[in-house]
Each structure stands twice: as C-alpha cells, then as structure tokens.
Amino acid sequence: MTNFPYRPNVAMLLYRPSTYQLWIGERHGEPGHWQFPQGGVDSGSSLEENVIRELVEELGAQANKFGSPVRLQATHRYDFTKPRQYGGEFFRGQDQTFWAVAYLGTDADFNLSALEPEFQKFRWVSSADVRSMAPSRRLVGYEAALTEFDALVSSLKGGK
Q1: I need a surface site. Which of 23, 32, 113, 141 has the fewest CB within 10 A?
Q2: What is the pLDDT, as a whole number, of residue 156?
Q3: How far apart are CA 82 and CA 140, in angstroms?
Q4: 106 has which bridge partners?
Q5: Residues 37, 14: contact at Cβ < 8 Å?
Q6: How far apart are alpha carbons 85 and 137 in whole angstroms?
Q7: What is the pLDDT of residues 47-62, one digit of tens each?
C-alpha cells in the first residue's frame, strides 16, 4: 500500500455561533457512529471552496448558511485497512485538515437526504459530548482539533 498516495481531506467543526455547540452526525446506515462532516478535496478548487462544497453536499443546506471557513492548525493522517478508490485513483489513506465553520441557518435548512445520504440524523453537542460520542478511531484525529476549537471559543468569550 505504500506506493499509493494519501487523499487530501477536509473535516469540519460546524458550530452555532450563539452557543458554540458542534454539529455531529450519525452516519447513514451505521447507528451509533457519530462524526463530523468531511470529504475529499477536488483539485482546481481552494480548500475553503472544498469545505463549503462538502457541507452543502453532506448537509443539504445552501452555501450562504455557512460562514467563512477558518483553518485550524490540527491535522490528521491515517491509513485505510486496504486501498480505496476515489475518482479512478487509489489511495492508502487520508490527510485531513480541520476547519471551524459558523452555521448561520436553522435546523430546518438541513436536508440530509438531498444527495446521496451521508448522515441519518444529527445533534448539536459540546466538545465534551463529541469526545464521548465519536468512535475511538475518529477521536484520535479529532482530539487536537477539539482542543484547538475549545481554545478558540475561550478566546472569543474573553477567556471566561
């Protein structure tokens, strides 16, 4: 597998600006598997454009419901158990970048079945809840992003 590249990936910490709660979705057809929206990067588009495209595709809300993506410093690289094919190319794993994105809409703006469903339901939760809900294989990559998000929220609240 070492001869295959890593697939660039964006993972989004979508949050409500009023409460700083995070959006976490239960994967379609996988009860109990909660995760952040994420997806592969299309070449020819900026990472920010890919963030918004993935949010629109996976959550079914219009692009104007999402604030400007803020890139976090956290990254995560992981290997697949076997190579996967995306767009005619095989990859050994994914290189994730993490993004904080304010959600400007309402829950009614989501349509989880708009395209090919990724999620069957969602919740707005605290970062502590994410830590208890996300599968351990995801949490290992989420931890640095959650810590960074918590620090960002603390600074926005004036360190309270």
Answers
A1: 32
A2: 82
A3: 19
A4: none
A5: yes
A6: 21
A7: 999 999 999 999 999 9
